[in-house]
Amino acid sequence: MPIPLTDLTFDNTFVRELPGDPQTDTGRRQVRGACYSPVQPTPVAAPRLVACSREVLELLDLAPDSCALPLFTDVFSGNRLLPGMQPFAMCYGGHQFGNWAGQLGDGRAINLGEVLNSQGQRLLLQLKGAGPTPYSRSADGLAVLRSSIREFLCSEAMYHLGVPTSRALSIISSGELVERDMFYDGHPKDEPGAVVCRVAPSFLRFGNYEILTARGETALLKTLVDYTIRTDFPHLGEPSPPVYLEWFREVCRRTATMIVHWMRVGFVHGVMNTDNMSILGLTIDYGPYGWLEGYDPDWTPNTTDSQGHRYCFGNQPHIGQWNLLQLANAIYPLIGDSKSFEEALALYNDVFLSGWNQMMAEKLGLSRFVAGSDEPLLNEMLDLLQLVETDMTIFFRQLAQLPATASHLERELTANPDQTLRPFAEAWYQPQSVTPEYRLRVSKWLTAYLHRRLQDKLPDNERIARMNRVNPKYVLRNYLAQLAIDRAENGDFSMVQEILDLLRRPYDEQPEREQFFSKRPEWARNRPGCSMLSCSS
Ligand code: AMP
Ligand code: MG
Questions:
Q1: Is 275 a catalytic residue?
Q2: Rounded distance, CA 519 to CA 439, Å?
Q3: Ligand 1 pocket mutation pick from 39, 97, 104 by most atoms within 8 angstroms of CB
Q4: Given pLDDT bands bounded at 50, 70 and 90, which one contains residue 1?
Q5: d(Cα 298, Cα 123) in Å, to the nearest integer?
Q6: Share of the chain above pLDDT 90, in %
Q7: Who has the most CB within 10 Å: 34, 181, 229, 464?
Q8: Is the pTM value of this prediction over 0.90?
Q9: How far is the CA of 133 from the centre of ligand 1 (A)?
Q10: pLDDT tens, 437-451?
Q11: Residue 148 has pLDDT above 90, yes or no
């Protein structure tokens, strides 16, 4: 049964069990000996609901129409607190682009409270863009509408794709202007402001542990780790040194699994700093992320990373491990056994590699990955996809439709070569530039692939259904998010809702929305917001 908003049950373990900052103002400061600072959201002038996720309402036991109430808009813009809420900002540090950055913290995120839902799940409600905190450094604690729409849509899209992620309940425009220099090039602009309410069991990051070790606060580190295990990993048992290690191994496994999913759907996080790595293995902090259009391991949407490409698509698995190494260094004082950490980091590699192979086999419609013989097939496909700009989503989705038998394919290749190269050809961005040699390589690969597929003897309809469950038809293409933003900035929020609806069923055919299953239009190739984003949000 749905409940009214005022009946949400709060159980605020974080502020109850961990030490907080005695100061409650928003003066910027280094906060030592504490895991958080109590802080109030800053009220906004004219809150207005932009969009709301009905699935997240349901998760919170709220009725679908509760977001229409003025109270909802007031609470999730930060204008009003519900009984039981105890707002706070977390203290954390982090490695940014490979360098230790010291204290960062929730500079524009304010946690409202931990809801216990009727299923017994713990869900922390967090406002992003609700004003300054002690961790805001030189910034304003606010967020603009464009980045809020991106965070909201992507959180929900990832959830429906089956990727571990934080959720988003709502976006509310603030009715206030926020100044941003989108490309840090001396051209600041006033943009509409907004607040997103994010939801996850916990927003603890690797950086929450790193900051304590960097400051030599080992007793507090132990308190925080014990809290984390008791609250979010209770199945591991009572905290002790062997349990700490088991916990780290689980974080390694979860991180590897999350990144396999990213690689499956073509997601590039864009800023995999250790302060953006969730201890629960959830995708968090949607900033300058992007979705692969042409399959290109070297691609990153983040202009701040355009020199080094540290966080490009193909480097994400490696960075996951680098970040885990920083977490290992942070919790080392509790365990003091470097060999076990090395083994856990090797476990990350194993989990990633077997997950990647299994995932690729599923994308190709094979019942399992045969080590050795399937590798050349996979590698040749990835080479082909990179040699000619080929849309990843369209390619994999169309692969399921290939003729069922190899001899059938060979006949077709002779009779009608262009038609048969369809999974590739429909995904090519510049078909006119494709050489005859390349076409020949593609048709050889297709023949080898079909021979391999036939070995599995899966009935065709079953194979297609399986492939369609892992190869999405619809993803949050960068230009689609931008179109929804352009309209929303002009006061029309309908496309945000439309994209949200589309991405609720990413694996289903939606014939009435076929236009969203198409390559990125040429105008979007180099347009800011579509292919180029920065951390300015
Ligand atoms: P990010 O890379 O976006 O996750 O942010 C890195 C750090 O900068 C975090 O500590 C954020 O809280 C902080 N930050 C980013 N934008 C703002 C802002 N507008 N106001 C205050 N802090 C911010
Ligand atoms: Mg962040």
A1: yes
A2: 20
A3: 104
A4: confident
A5: 36
A6: 92
A7: 229
A8: yes
A9: 11
A10: 999 999 999 999 999
A11: yes
Which of 14, 488, 526 is closest to 224 using CA atoms? 14
Kindly state the greatest CA–CA separation across the chain: 78
Q: Using alpha carbons, list the distances in angstroms from residue 196 to 158, 308, 498, 536.
A: 16, 31, 18, 16
Q: Can you spell out the DSSP letters for 284-348?
A: ---SS-EE-SB--TT---BGGGTTT-TT-GGGHHHHHHHHHHHHHHHHHHHH--HHHHHHHHHHH
Q: What is the structure's pLDDT at 526?
A: 87
Q: Which residue has the tokens 């297609």?
A: 464
Nearest to 92 by CA among 244, 203, 257, 253: 203
Residue 405 DSSP class: S
Q: State in Å: Cα 202 to ligand 1 middle.
A: 18
Helical residues (DSSP H) of 406-493, grouped into ranges = 406-415, 417-420, 422-425, 436-455, 460-470, 478-489
- What is the C-alpha to C-alpha distance for residues 504 and 512, in angstroms, rounded to an integer? 14
Ligand that lies nearest to the alpha carbon of residue 288, given by its number in the listed order: 1
> How far is the C-alpha of 438 from the C-alpha of 356, rounded, in Å?
26
Mean pLDDT of 230-248: 98
Atom of ligand 1 nearest to the CA of 105: 10
Predicted confidence band of residue 405 (pLDDT cuts 50, 70, 90) = confident
- Distance, CA 231 to ligand 2 centroid (Å)? 22
